[in-house]
Each structure stands twice: as structure tokens, then as C-alpha cells.
Design goal:
By secondary structure, the protein is α/β, with parallel strands linked by helices. The chain has one domain: Glycosidases (TIM Barrel, Alpha-Beta Barrel). The chain is 39% helix and 11% strand. It has helices at residues 24-35, 71-76, 97-129, 134-146, 158-161, 165-174, 176-202, 220-224, 262-267, 271-283, 319-328, 344-353, 394-400, 403-412, 421-430, 441-444, 474-486, and strands spanning 3-7, 40-42, 206-211, 239-243, 253-258, 286-289, 297-302, 312-315, 334-336, 357-360, 382-385, 436-440. It has an 8-stranded parallel beta sheet. The chain has a 4-stranded antiparallel beta sheet with strand order 5-4-7-8, with no helix packed on it. Helix 1 (24-35) links the parallel strand 1 and strand 2 (40-42). Helix 3 (97-129) packs across helix 7 (176-202) and helix 4 (134-146) packs across helix 7 (176-202).
Length: 490
Amino acid sequence: MRQSGILLHLTSLPSPGGIGTLGQEARQFVNFLHKAGMRVWQVLPITPTGYAESPYQCFSTYAGNPLLIDLPTLARQGLLKLPEPLAEDEQADRVDFAALIVRKNALLTQAFEQSYHKVEGKVARFRRQQALWLEDYALFMAIKQHFGGISWQDWPDEDIRLRKPAAMAAYRQRLAREVNREAFIQYLFFSQWQALKAYANKKGIAIFGDLPIYVALDSADAWANPRVFQLDEQLRPPFIAGVPPDYFSSDGQRWGNPLYNWPYLKKTNYRWWLDRLAAAGQVFDITRVDHFIGFANYYAVPAREDTARNGAWHAGPGRALFDAIRRELPQLRIVAEDLGAVSPRVRKLLDDTGYPGMKVMTFAFSGDPFNEHLPKYHTSNSVVYTGTHDNNTLLGWWEQASHQERNNTLLALSIRHDEDFTQAFLQATLNSLSDTAIIPMQDILRLPQAARMNLPGTIGGNWLWRMKPGQATGKLARWLRDLNERAGRG
């Protein structure tokens, strides 16, 4: 089935209160997708952001991001008495995370104090259902707050850092109220998430989520499951994840995530990964597995290095992991993010799994006649993008493209100089042989580089862009529906 969708992270919705949420504006966007003939809404990871507010450096691979909880919904449900209506932020096209975190945490704590007793039974049931991860996460966050927010690697109490049983019991008792608060917040998040997902699915919209291959070092996952990762006796990582120098960065990217202990995972029949993917399958309709190449070969950077230049490649688990996934989770819909250093081993793994890979149109026109992103090399079993969250916007890319790259683009896509470039490029993307075409909302809105979501290899200034109220209009939806119909999608 040929279908299309839009990439728009939830934080980018024009919800009141300074950040996109799971409330009314999310439903309005679902309505917009439906009117536009789109069948997919792709989002970035929805987990609680940590370092630099990156959705790829989260405190948990299971938990939901409290910043996405819709406060007006809580007020309507009688779970929060808002002191005043939330500001509409009519002109705000950026998230002010520093101010937002303080304000929202205070209001969520207020909701806990006002209403925990009203839903305590439901929270208890939710805790039993999510026992695999929730108790460790709630305790982790409570201890983290107790120690002023510092990484668990730096907690001054060595016994709790190393999860000694007596210390675990003592902190559970000492911080019981704070643990309950964290569980309550997760109950609120997933109640709202499941309601939104049900609304989208009823409208014929599939939620396409994102699962980073790695977890953050400063996460409940690493703290609670140290044997899953390459950590020494003091639970420190001798090597960390990253990628070598590439298109995005001449120093490579030093991600800092702990690497997996693949021999241990193999001994346990990949239980940790199976549990993680099963949870993703409950939350999303389709799951994009980020950095798929890391399952074939992963790049290990010495933790003491300041850049990723001096890392080394090692063999990943390969097909064995995905055979286990196919046996236990045959219904799981996975898309492989196969961008980067695509070796023959990566290609073979992708072929063995049968997962669709990705094609990025703005990568295609460098002049290499064998560039696999060129439309003539697209296959039906793939997902095509104008660009991803890591790319410049289409307009920003075009403004910075060389004269030769511009000519290559116009020639390859048969675009006339007098045509509207954005419309022609989007139509060419939708015309691709790929079964699924995804367009970032910034490209649909024809926004310049300032609306870019992320610049890989940089810290600060990323993940901030927001759509302004009223931009997703009926006229825009009709224009997109026309493009989709011409391309045979919908």
C-alpha cells in the first residue's frame, strides 16, 4: 500500500503553555493529517529527555516525557486546579526548556498533591502492569532529584550507586512519596498517550515512533541493568558509542552512550531487547530503529577521548537478534534507519530481516551516479524522506546547495527553472517507488534553516522548533491531498 505521512515531533505542536503536548492540538493535527490524505504521523522518541533536552539521551527507554502531558486535560478531568489559563504563545516558535521544566514540574507536583488519592487504585494497577521498568525508573528519578539532579555515575552514596540491597530498601522507604509522584506522572502520561493513539488510529492514522539503538549513560536503564552494558566493576564505561567522521561532522559524533554487552545478551536470548521492543510495539504502530547499522557493526570510542576520531568498529549481534525478534514478536512493524556507514555486512543484515530501509532525497544529488538515494534506485520496501530531523530543512538545503548540486537536482527530477521548487521536490518525493513517503512539517511549511530541528554533533540550540498556531490550515491540507492523489498515495 502506497502511503504518506508527516514528521512532526510532539514538542513542535502549537499547544498553549510553551511546548507541544498530548492534548487538543495533537488531535487537531491528526485531523489535518486525515484531511491531507496522509496515513502516518512520525514522531521522535517520546521518552523523558536528559542532557541538552535531546530525545536521544533520555532517562528511560520506557518512560514517557512529563513535559508532553497536557495540563488543560488534567484540569478538565478534575486532577489539577490551574491557577490561571496557560499562555497561548501566539508568537513563540521555540521551546524555552529552562523555564518550562521548572514551571511544568511544579504544576505536575501540584496535581500529585491534589489528586493522587483520587486515582491511587488506578496508579497501583498501572504500576503492576509496568513493573518491568516503572519501579526502577521511579526510584531512579527520586534518588536523582534527592542528589540535586546529578548523574547516577556521580551519586555520593556508593552503595545506592552500585544498587546494594540494603541501600535500595532504605531509599525506597525514605523516598516513598517521591517514588509515588513519579509513578503518578507516568500514569498520567500513558493515559493521555493511549487516548491520543486511539483517536489517531480511529482516523486511520498510524503512529510511527522512534527507538534509539542506545540508551543514555545517565538513565534508569543503565543503572538498573548494568550487566546489559559494557561497564567495569565500578559501573564505569571504558568505551562509549558514536560514529566516525562523516557527512555531518569532521570529528565524528561522540554520543557518550554505554555500549551493549552482546555476549551477555546472547546468553539471555536477548531478553532485554525483546522486552524493550515489545513495549515499543505497545506504544507505536510502526517503530523506527535508530542507527540500525550498529546491529551489524558498532563503533566504540575510548571514553577518555574528546572526539570520535579514534574509535574502532566491532561486530554486532547480527541476524541472531532479529531471528529472536521474529520468533517472539512476529507482528512488530520495524523500519531500519540504515543511514551512515553502510557496509556489506549491514546490507546483508537488512536483506535478511526484510525490514524497509530509508532513502533521503536531499542526500541524492551529489553527482555520484550510483548514489543509492537517487530516485531511480528506490525500491518499494523502503521509506523515502525529503530529509530527516537531522537534516537541514528543504529550503535551507537548497539555499546552501552548490551550483552543481542544484543542476543535478533539477535534471534528475525534471524540474523546470520556472516551477515552484518546493512543490516540485515534494511531488518528486511522493512519486518515489518507496511504499511510504514522509515529509517533515517544516518542508511542507516551506521554512528556512532557522526551523531546523537538529544539527548533529552540536550541543545547544537543537530540538526547539515549534509550529505556530494556525499554520496547519485547511488550504494546506487540500494542497497535500492533491499531491498525494497525483502520486497514488492515500
